[in-house]
Amino acid sequence: MQKDLELELYQSMYRMRAAERAIQQEYPNNQMKTPMHMSIGEEGIVAGICTALKEKAKFYGTYRSHALYLAVTEETDGFFAELYGKVTGPAGGKAGSMHLASPDHNLIMTSAVVGTTIPVAVGGAFREKYMNTDKIAVVFFGDGAVDEGVFWESLNLACLWKLPVLFVCEDNGLAIHTPTSVRRGYDSLGKIARQYNCLVYDSFEQTDVLTIHAMAKKAYAEIQRFRMPALAIIPYYRYLEHVGVNEDFDVGYRSCDEFEQWLAKDPIALLRRRLINQNQENAVVSIEDAVNKQIFISVQKAKDAPFPRPEELYRGVYGE
Amino acid sequence: MHHSQDPKNFTGGYTVSKRIITYAQAINEALRQEMERDSSVFVYGLDVADHKGINGTTSGLAEKFPGRCLSTPLSEEALMGFGLGAAINGLRPVNVHIRVEFLLVAFNQLVNMLASARYGSNGKLSVPIVIRVLIGRGWGQGFQHSKSLQSIFAHIPGLKVIMPATPYDAKGMLIAAIRDDNPVICMEHRFLFWQEGEVPFEPYTVPLGKCSILRSGSDVTIVASSWSCVDALDAAKVLERKHNILAELINVRTIAPFDDATVNQSVRKTGHCIVVDSDWTHCGFSAEVAARVQEDCFGSLRSPVTRIGFAPTHCPTTRPMEDLYYPNAETIIRVTEKKLGLKPADLSDEKFHNYENKFKGPF
Ligand SMILES: Cc1ncc(C[n+]2csc(CCOP(=O)(O)OP(=O)(O)O)c2C)c(N)n1
Ligand SMILES: [Mg+2]
């Protein structure tokens, strides 16, 4: 069982990393005309939580949506089609990289305006409580979103009305290039959140996927048991520039040393090593081969797929 | 004031000491010179002090003016109210937003507080704030990163709304806006940042609320805002070359207050009016222009006023649909040909301005 879980988590994270490596290769050809906010570095968070809460949650996220989309949908055909602006994408090419979502898979919405999906998730959680279901809402957002009033308003509301929502702050310490040290007039988000009537999970030092997976299981159980929302604060390191497919250690706002420390605990490399030590080399390699093949095919399919027809421009503004 | 070290350019005179710079450099220079002139001027907004400096428009300010160019938390509404507080107490803030969508987060403070503060205090409060907001398009910006919305801001009494379209206007209008005692929203189309033009070294002002005539003509009046001026200028050149049609091109410059006198005077001469506004047409600024023109020039009009703007839908990411969403120089040429009963010209060798490949991110 544990072995299967580890392989499943490895597959989920490997799919994210490999898909984004493919984007890095393809993007310079200028066929994916959509701004890329890459997920490289955050895979452990999204894979851990989404794998743990599959079928138990509806998900909401931000413009940094690649890993989340792949974790929830476990598919790459629609993913690449949307990035190429093709009609076979989940939004028929209308959304692109910043709004990847798939309500059919319970990835309800992602948004490019910071903080905007947080209250939406709270409304979604209200629905689950209202209808007395066992689902929760899970919303991913960055440390920058915590600067916004709407984060605090949403947290208050969820606590007040005891709504089943898991707030996940993916804390890379940066909003574009501006670090939390020059944006926050307080020391600890976790400490403040403990004054609210919610559960707080904030003892993470790395993005170890097994730890995060276990946290998500526990959070789900505690949200149901104590009838209150939860906030997870998980630090990670953004490997690439804020937007775009390249590294940016040359421009001087952060140091490469820091990156190397994080790279040493890269969640994908860590889990791979662990699986190899358990004599799972064959299983690992066959996952990697299958994923690589799947991505290669998806990219080809996306390139070959048609663009949406002109009349699509006006379709979907209003319900018919 | 230090002039350029280049002796060829240094004349010491006011209007002659010009050189070619970009629109982004013109904005940067306006901010620098106003901060030098008046210590109450300060700049704040998300990422204004980082190494990219809002496409270079705020570069160097944080180093040159310690404590007066401040990167902020992501707290647009609070920071708009903060700007009001600073302004009514005597400072001259310049607040920067890299997308109009993010300014919407501050709409409550802007509309309910800033716009009416002077009126509600019977003139005792003055709100000398400039809100710079970048607008733009391209590279799949999509429905949350490509809006313009000038008509929404221009709808509100008490707000001035400017859209400089040339480097000369960018510097002169921004300086005028900083010196103005009212909230001024300065909307800057990102593609314009790479436009080059002659700009004097010295500080100067271009009065707010005055159109300019980019090209004189007698056959048709084209009224354009912001980036649409670039498209319209491209179109006007082709119309002259291919059809011998002389379009009079009016650069609106200021959406509110709107200088309709200049437009009406031109339409009385040409009898035809086309409005090209980088925004939606429904309830948009182009509708306002059409209304004013028919009120004032009804007897002179030889055709109905034609409006050109974004397609009435959301901006899709995918390229073929994005191309349909935006009007361009060709759209203006085709509309003019139709209006004047001309056969469509062959445009297959024409090259029109586009800076899309310089810009692949939302920032
Ligand atoms: C309301 C709003 N303000 C500003 C922006 C511009 N912006 C886009 S991403 C970003 C940084 C957000 O940082 P964070 O929430 O930590 O997310 P990360 O990019 O680090 O994942 C900013 C300021 C925006 N999209 N929305
Ligand atoms: Mg961040």
Automatic annotation (TrEMBL), chain B:
<keyword id="KW-0560">Oxidoreductase</keyword>
<dbReference type="GO" id="GO:0016491">
    <property type="term" value="F:oxidoreductase activity"/>
</dbReference>
<dbReference type="Pfam" id="PF02779">
    <property type="entry name" value="Transket_pyr"/>
</dbReference>
<protein>
    <recommendedName>
        <fullName>Transketolase-like pyrimidine-binding domain-containing protein</fullName>
    </recommendedName>
</protein>
<dbReference type="InterPro" id="IPR033248">
    <property type="entry name" value="Transketolase_C"/>
</dbReference>
<keyword id="KW-0786">Thiamine pyrophosphate</keyword>
<dbReference type="Pfam" id="PF02780">
    <property type="entry name" value="Transketolase_C"/>
</dbReference>
<feature type="domain" description="Transketolase-like pyrimidine-binding">
    <location>
        <begin position="21"/>
        <end position="195"/>
    </location>
</feature>
<dbReference type="InterPro" id="IPR005475">
    <property type="entry name" value="Transketolase-like_Pyr-bd"/>
</dbReference>
<dbReference type="InterPro" id="IPR029061">
    <property type="entry name" value="THDP-binding"/>
</dbReference>
<dbReference type="InterPro" id="IPR009014">
    <property type="entry name" value="Transketo_C/PFOR_II"/>
</dbReference>
